[in-house]
Amino acid sequence: SQIFRATFAPSTFRGYQAISHLLREDQDLASELLARAREQNGPKSLVRGSPKTAFGVQVNVISRQETFLAFRRSMTVGEHQGLWMLGCGETMSESDLLESTPESGRLSIVSFCQRALREEVGLEPSNYGEIHISWLGLNLQEGSNLLVAHVESNLSEGQIERRISQCPGTQEMTELDWYSFRNGRIKDLIKEMELSGIASKRRTKPL
């Protein structure tokens, strides 16, 4: 089997948040990093000279009805207020990884995704199938590595919602909704995600 490994500079979560804030506020700096990434040797030089960073995962949750889960972030959180997010997410700095696995200093991508699913959606490995990774790269807006994955649950929308209601990790969310792959709402949701703070016109469920 193939093994993927990613490395990044040692950092604290507070440092990661500071850099993310800087990139959002300083558009000239963000544009410079994007231009470097597009150069022939840009990606290598960008990674070698990058600021302290973190590793994030975003896991899309698909219900038994073949609908996928979306959360709306609270207006009281520190960043991305009111933004609709697909699935659940988790961000860890290098120091967090070392604390979680002191023997090797490593955390597998699978266990990382499982942690996000457990803490924010209340799902255990027995509640979903294989974790499918569809994208991995640098998130220049956040100054971090980002992995996007998908899981198909054997639970219904209602069963997942009951599990979510018991999760402490949902305090940053105010609403949830389910979207079908076949109802044409995907493009609308993507537009809403691009326009931070714009809510869905569709009826949603408060958390």
Structure summarized in a few sentences:
The chain is of the alpha+beta class and 207 residues long. Helix content is 33%, strand content 25%.
Description:
The chain has 207 residues and is an alpha+beta fold. It has helices spanning 13-25, 27-38, 42-48, 94-100, 109-120, 157-165, 186-194, and strands at 54-62, 67-73, 84-86, 88-93, 132-139, 144-152, 173-180, 205-206. Strand 5 (132-139) and strand 6 form a beta hairpin. Helix 2 packs across helix 3. The termini are far apart.
Structure annotation, total helices: 7
In spatial order, strands of the major sheet run: 4-1-6-5
Percentage of residues in helical conformation: 25-40%
Q: Could you spell the SSE succession in H and E letters?
A: HHHEEEEHHEEHEHE
Q: How far apart, in Å, are the first and last alpha carbons?
A: 41 Å
Coarse shape: globular
For this structure, the quaternary state is single chain
Strand content: 25-35%
Tell me the radius of gyration.
18 Å
Class derived from helix and strand content: alpha+beta
Low-confidence stretches: 196-203
Main sheet overview: 4 strands, mixed
What is the mean predicted local confidence, pLDDT?
A: 75
Give the tally of β-strands. 8
